[in-house]
Amino acid sequence: MREKARPSLRRMAWSALAAVLAATGIQVMATVNVASAVQTTQCTTPVNIFVGMSADPGLTLRKHKEPIQGYNDWAPEQGVGWGWDNRFFTGPSGYVYFIDTDGSLNRHQWTPTGWANNGVSVRAGTGFAEWNSAASRYRITVDTNNHFYYVSPNGELTWGAYDEATKVWTKRVIATGWNKYNQVFAAGDGVIWTRDASIDNGALLRSQYDYRTQTWTQQPTKVGAGWNGFKQIASPGGDVIYGMNPGGELWAYRWLPAENQWALNSLMHTGEKVSNWTGTDEFAPAVDSCRLTGNFAADVQCSPEANVWGHFSNNAFRLKPHTEPETGYSAFNTDRHIGNGWNMRFMAGNNGYKYLILPEGKLNRHQWTSTGWANGGISTEIGSGDAWKGWDNAAYHFRITVDTNNDFYAVPASGNLERRVYDDLAKTWQTEVLDSGWGKYDQVFAAGNGVLYARDRNVGDGTLYRYHYDSKNRRWLDYGTEAGVGWNFYKQMVSPGADIIYGLEFGYGVQWYRFDPAAKQYVANAEGVTRKYLMWWENAQEITADIDACKLTNPVTVTPPATTAPHNEKAQMIYNSAAQRLEVGFVGDNGILYRGYQGSAGSESIEFQALSGFQNFTGRAALASRQDGKLVALGRGTDSQSRTYTQATAGGTTWTGPTDLKGAMASSPILVRGSNNLLTAFAVDSAGQLWFAEQFDAAGAFKPWRKATNTGTYTMSEDFSVVPNGSSFDIVYRSASNAVAVKKFTNGALAPARVASGLTVGGIPAGVTFADGLVQVVARGADNKLYTQKETASGFAGWTDISGTQTFAGSPSALLNVHGIVEVAARGSDGNMYRGGQTVPGATTWRNWHTNFDTAATDPMLAAAGGTEQRVFFRDNNGNYYLWQVPAYSSTTLRSAQASKQDEPIKVIKGNDPSR
């Protein structure tokens, strides 16, 4: 947070504190030491104090200019009402509460220009007659959250909150034994001060209640004595305290909770007499006037001013600079009239740019400098056509916004979210569709670099959701995090950046919020409030704020992980049912992504083609067939970003791409097709979290990467495999402890892990699924043996060693063949490729491992083609690829399969590796 200028100090002569204390009998510092305060206070100046007189029921507004230093400096007072001879007290946002003789609680609201609603009160509750009595008069208070705290005659302290939408109170008793306190007053967010008149000539105690956790963060703690000299004690917030004695003298003090001491003013006094209010009955300072400074906004850095712009009903366009956007402090510089005719959709971007969308479909750009409009106020047309039409329609008016990159995010009638980027040099636009299903939102506004908030007015009286799109890596860093309900209260919402939100009420009031995306909650400012009333902007029809005024000092960023050069990478092989042939994809050591295919169904050889346009791939390749028969190849570059190629026609050799899928992932991506016929890419990031990118439709582009939601914590290694399982996918992976675990992925969410414990594994575990939805896993142990187990309805029961006398290297490949037998291909420790399988379906016994003694440099890929045709693909170090033909095992092949390594029916097809 930037440093703020301090107000000038008025040097005035005052009586020594000791003499004053002796005269009044107030021994304020009886229990604490006095020192120069490190913690500071900021106040709205002047502080409004509502004063009721004893001689008549009139209400006077007095304004204290120096609450922090405690000087006797006041603005002219004014009479603001009549008939205020009952108990009254203040809340935040200008609220003033009055308890009528019938016990009803009535609320008024004071604005900078007078009483709202023409002074007519709103009844907020009944049953408050007790707090008009002399015994309980000062045992009810309201904090900066507009929460009530009141002590009943039986000593119960009740917390109460009034719901503006439902008109219903939520109440709970939060303490007992409080009838010993004769004064209770709020001074911040749940900060409650009390006076016990029975000890130490009036002991003063401070406590704090956290309504969010329903716990006391500070129990009543004594901080002073001698306070019985005051008739009434109250606070304008920020632990500033006013005490009024029976003669009408008003004294000011300031407590610093972080230092556990009283603050000293410039005269080294802890308290000063600030006025003499002879004839005053009681007083009520606006409780949200002051707040303590602290590190609550250390993670936000703002320009000296956040310009807020407004279009008004008289066609005027006005500018009002907010000088405290990071804290929500209501401080503004002079409101200026700087133009007319902005009565259409307008937005404020970066670098002073202001955008105006004309109804005929033109996008004009203006630029504001620190002194006025650039280019004499003449606009530049940067866009036209259908993309810029319709935004004057009320249904879409607030569904277009600009972020801190000057990138537009728009939700047109299609309901898709579009990102529109303008190239200032080429004078062209590039549009990217990011997501679907945004038609449910009636407002979308930017709050940072790719940070978007969207309101669904049909849920929870207006539910707000947060999104954060990282365009550099095509990641959703946040996706649909709920950010509160009840936002239909606002006509419009905008932001100056850093997740700060300004809400324009239908009644022209403007409120402040700041959301913490890490904690997923709103931040309380130094006053302890999460919603702060900023100003009343009479007749404002639409507003915006400079989106680059505030930035997070430590924003969420993605650091692309380091990669290694390609070396003997594992291939992907699939059966292309549309072309009735096997297809292969792999990354060569030269960094090129290759596609190989059988010349025809059952062909004994593979033809290869290099996919051009990018030559820095590494890791496992991914390959999948779309519903229309077109293949999609996917690879990860040495820059950690993924790229896709798509066949121009099914079965053809012409490809489009590479197209950026990006991601900056730590693992190679895996591409699979689900039961919905959509392709989904999966990858793991540097933190061991699973991400996915799904197609818009069966023949469309991929959406940006999203992190799979998960309950609890987990760490997934980069070594994982994905197995379709009905409408879900099973993710088989190594955990942080190198155990095999399985998580079911359904509609973007991960189920709890099913852990196959008892074995430390290496490489990529393989898995197959059965009709009952259960999974069988195969993995290489730390002893280089292969182990397997099938889960039961109650979990994984234990591992079976299926290695026989053989040991293995790398990662196995497994499939469930047409006869229901699990088969495995694996690279042996001796360098040869092996194939094995169950003796019969569901057996725990395993066949002898068979080989053709072909050496392998890469891990194998075992895939099934049509009928009983199966193939194993791998490559060696001598420039050869191999395509073993291994017919599916069945129970009738068991006798020969048990004979010897050479007796296995393996047909070897060998050819030239195109990458060598």
Automatic annotation (TrEMBL):
Q: Does the keyword Signal apply?
A: yes
Keyword terms: Signal
Q: Please identify the protein, giving its name as recorded.
A: Tachylectin
Gene3D superfamilies, A to Z: Tachylectin 2
The residue ranges of the PLL-like beta propeller domain are 574-739, 762-891
Tachylectin domain boundaries:
61-263, 323-521
From which organism does this entry originate? Answer: Kibdelosporangium banguiense
**Record's signal peptide:** 1-30
> What Pfam families does the annotation carry?
DUF8189, Tachylectin
